[in-house]
Specification:
By secondary structure, this protein is an all-alpha fold. Helix content is 77%, strand content 0%.
Amino acid sequence: VGLFVAAICGYMAGLIGSSNSPVSGLAILAVLGIASIAVLFGHAHPTLEQPLLAFALFVTTVVISVATIANDNLQDLKTGQLVDATPWEQQVALVIGVIVGAAVIPPILDLLARGYGFMGAANLHVAPGSHPLPAPQAMLITALAKGVLGGNLDWSLIGIGGLIGAVVVAIDEVLRATGRGKLPPLAVGLGIYLPTSTTAPVVIGALLGYWYERRLRGEAFADLGKRLGVLLASGLIVGESLFGVLLAGLIVASNRGTPLALVGDAFAGPSQIIGTLAFVATVGGLYTWMHRMARRAHGT
């Protein structure tokens, strides 16, 4: 299974990039297949449902790890080929990256589990007042495994989902062939099963990116401005992630869910409005600053 998944994800990552690689879809197929196999061998022992569930989730975790590593490695190797990098040196760096990731990621996940907790988990050692992190993909995979092992999974819904996916792919191909636009199946799938709280920032970011690129249209420094925009967006994503980890450390160290709180819960409503306005002003100011930087760097 791991070789099959690595081949698919690696090929897709090299073809269209790791962001569009179907890791989630393969994870769903993997957990369905593994749980079904577990049912075949353990259906006569109802007391084994929990161990079989743990086994199915563990194997699915390994499969997902294989898929993500294949995505990263193949995209890195492809990029290295484009810039004439030395393959064996890249491979050494990739092996080091896997080892470092295996050593660093578990403690960080443990810190997040102790600081925030995860929705759907027991969260036994979470600081009081903290808010569990949403994990829609993990909850979906767990629900599928429980449904298969418990014998109460509605397979007709999976069939309907597959049919919807096939229709969306067909519509996308027709739109592309006729030059009338496109309907990315991946975006449709994410919009269906991810909550609005997760997808809304993506939509807002896409609109901001469209507005910024439209503002650059026709400018002599448009390419430089777009690259700076990508750097800013990447910095916002990485910065938010790093701050979340640091905040989890503060939560664990202080044993308080809101260690940086300056006001009480009564100010929650106004604080959200003020925070939103401050974020909009900050993003607008940064994009305006980048526009000026690109213009100045181009000498116009």
